Amino acid sequence: MKLAGCLLLLSGALIVVTALAMLPGFAMRSWFGVAGIAVELLGLGAMARGHMLEERGAAKAGAHTPFREYR
Amino acid sequence: MTLVLCLLCILLMPFAAAGLGLIQAGLGRSRSAAHALLTTLCALAVTSIVFILVGFAWSGFAGGASHSFELGGVRWDWLGAEPFLAHGVHFDAAGGGTTSLAVGLVLCFQMFAVAIAAIIPIGAGTDRWRLSAFIASSALFAAITWPLFAHWVWGGGWLSRLGTSFSLAAGFVDAGGSAVIHAVGGLTALSLAWILGARKGKYAGDGTATAIPGHNIVMVLVGCILSLVGWLGVNSAGSMLFYGAGAGRVAGIVVNTTLAASAASLAALGMTRLRFGKPDASLIANGWISGLVAGSAGSAFVSPGAAIAIGFVAGVLVVFSVEMFEQRLLVDDPGGAISVHGVGGIWGVLAAGFFVGTAPGMRGAQILAQVVGIAALLGFLLPLTCGLNWLLNRLVPQRVDRDGDWHGMDIRELGAGAYPEFVVHSDEFVPR
What we know:
The complex is a heterodimer. By secondary structure, chain A is mostly helical. Chain A contains two helices and no strands. Chain A is rod-shaped, with a radius of gyration of 19 Å. By secondary structure, chain B is mainly alpha-helical. Chain B is globular. The termini of chain B are far apart. The interface of A and B includes residues 10 and 52 of A.
């Protein structure tokens, strides 16, 4: 999921840059800029979700209630 | 006059590093305090060497040599091409005149700027980031990640040319480094927090976050004051070196920087008073720094009223952001580096689009230029720093082992605690 998020982040940035280079007019560039940022936010969400699944898995496995052996 | 003033401002920059170091050490546990400050010192040492060896060749300066390509009839300047070891910089003023002096000052400024940016991720990795891995990560940061984005904005790269290439007002504006220093550092902190995982005892089995309070709030608050001094230098020197601000504008920069931090800290004070019943000193300190971060981008070009508005929003934002990362996204960030520098920096960049003075009818274009910069930060920089640190983690494990987590980084890695004459209490916050 983190890799998919990373690819979405990259795609979003490429949308913005390509729109800047290829599209004429301020309005078109602005709309594609917003679309690119939206794709990046999806990517960020996917990466955050991937991390949350890992942390929840670790918490359920007891990794975050540590040090029992020291008490 | 301007060059001398600029040099004086650059000499203030290490205070920002010292302030951030104190804040991050204070917000961590007492058993990792010496380690946190030592990593700050190591950040200065490693980044200054690596940046002079390699980094400056790739960050470069406006008007210097660079790598570029043509796309859509526009030249995209993406990487500096200066000689390694700063061989292209002549420190002898008699040899190169004012231009050479200015390039030397750009080199000095960037050397301290990359160090400040490299210190930011320490806040997210406190209590569990191994020293050797930190040094390797900082070296990569100073050699690759930071110079790349610094060139785009401060080295005459494609973001700085958005105005001339695509008629986007003044192009991407970031005088004090909201993006180049803080958002880059904050996003690197996010990638490291993802890789390192949470501290032991941070989350219960059901995912509920446990509060692990900072061990020395006095140290944190002193760090805030020191940081202000450093920030005044960063914002003033950056505005003069990269945006041609004259000496007369420095007073305005000082006022705006202070106002942004003040508004942010008061906003954080009000928000924590409203939400928790009492003001929270660590969040107010985070608010102060967040205001400094957000106010940096447009510090030379906004009115005092706008600086207050930018700081106020940053202060409100940081309170919610810290809570969101900790409790909802399960990101353990003891120093609040991601919220303060990442979120605050991105807000500062966007706010500059709304508030900097532009020609009539160019407000939308300026905002779009700033949005393009944010897209580049999230879309190019974050994957790059995630990828580099992930690869590094395969070679040099970044997280300390289980015993180190328990003993604290001071004993584990340095062999002695920061406070040997004091009794270290057990972790009352760890569920029993």
